[in-house]
Amino acid sequence: MTDGPEGSENDPCPTRRTLAAGDRFLPLWIAAAMVGGLAFGRLAPASIVGAIGGWDLPGTPVPAAIGAGLVLMMYPPLVRVRYDELPRVFRNTRLLALSLLLNWGVGPFVMLGLGLLLLRGYPELLVGLVLIGSARCIAMVLVWNELAGGSREYAAGLVAFNSLFQVAFYGIYVYTFVTIFLPAAGAPALPVPVSPALVAYSVVVFLGLPFAAGVLTRWAHRTAGRLADLDGRIGPALAPVSLGALLYTIVLLFAFQSSAILASPVEVVLVAVPLVAYFVVMFFLSFGLGRWARAEYPENAALSLTAASNNFELAITVAVAVFGITSTVALAATVGPLVEVPVLLGLVTIARYLGSHSAPRAPGEEPDRLRASRVSPEEPLPRPTAEIGGDRAR
Fold first, then answer.
1. Crossing angle for the helix pair 240-256 and 64-79, to the nearest 10 degrees
2. Domains, the chain, ordered by start
3. Nearest to 217 by CA among 385, 3, 1, 393
4. Contact present, 391 and 232 (Cβ < 8 Å)
5. Could you report the per-residue pLDDT of 255-300, keeping only the tens digit for each?
6. Could you tell me what percent of the chain has a pLDDT over 90?
7. Nearest residue to 336 via CA among 268, 285, 280, 243
8. How far apart, in whole angstroms, are the C-alpha atoms of residue 347 and residue 150?
9. Which of 5-9, 155-159, 355-359 has the weakest average pLDDT?
10. How far is it, in rounded angstroms, from Cα 115 to Cα 103?
């Protein structure tokens, strides 16, 4: 995204700065990508659309074109994560425990409850919602966190923890919800054989590859004595890749699902309603609990956006692998990212507003947001921004 915020260079509060032009119009870019994807899917020759989506990632039903977009979208934020700071980030065990509770003890059950409340008569849509709710976010939250001015290190640590828990518990959650909880609540049971190997492979592809690339990039620049150049010049220069990859991925998602979306608008709306409610409930619940736990704004933003997001790549992979690309379950899983993108973008704006209206502090007391952004007592205060392309690492 655009390189640098508008406003004073010495403005101590990143959440009070106005977004630079590229980020200010991000909702328009996303809306244009959605409309463009639908138009491309409907108007372009079927042979062209089929050729783009005809190559799947080995071992998954996810088109390689979408997988490439997801990896490219995450690489620039991960390049700018200070990985040596991760141990310091997690010294606050209360925040770590709160994050794990929200992601694995609250989030899946909130989605299950909303599904039973609103989709009880639509078992396949309900199963698709369960697949989404049980998949905790490991990818796009890095983009939302960057836009909100959240802590890169904290967000990176949370997605790493979610990845480990996902490999261990995703299949158990889905099996328990679909075969035990749904029938107990009066909903029809559907067999959902989820392979642990498929879950692990999805995590490796969609998180492991960009994570490894980010770590290796920082290691190479540190070894060459050019880490400051990476943080101050190269990292911001890579930032437009995230915006381009995000818009590219949205175009393809809408293009590949254009027929299903336009042919089943009722099903799309039915799934969208509980999803919107879920994102909003989880964000405000998490942000409030983060405030209660005395989290500084950068940490609280990462905490709240992680809890409010989901791993739609994994949900779509499982839905397509188990039920087929044309199934109603797969349609429900696909609606996830279509709803998440605009809703999370709105929640990013709300997070920035809430961060700029923190509780008043005593005269001379340093703002919590600035304390959280310090790397070490010896280093000067970095200049964070709220956009992906911001010159935040200087």
1. 160
2. 21-356 (1.20.1530.20)
3. 393
4. yes
5. 887 887 788 788 889 999 999 999 999 999 999 999 998 889 999 9
6. 19
7. 268
8. 13
9. 5-9
10. 17
